[in-house]
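FAQ: What does the model actually see?

It sees only this:
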Amino acid sequence: MESKRLLNIGEASGLLGLSRHTLYSWVCQRRIPYVKAGRRTMFDTRDLDKWIERMKVHPKEEEDD
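And it is asked to produce this:
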């Protein structure tokens, strides 16, 4: 089975665990990568993977006393 490269707003919101409203807001603010296909807003899975990696917060390393 081949996975889709472009996701619609509902699929992307499910993948990211965000509401559709939040995604639309972030698109308007250009806070998340997206693709315009005519009037449709789509999300490239490769761009989302890169975006997730950039947004990842890593824990601080503990210092030895």
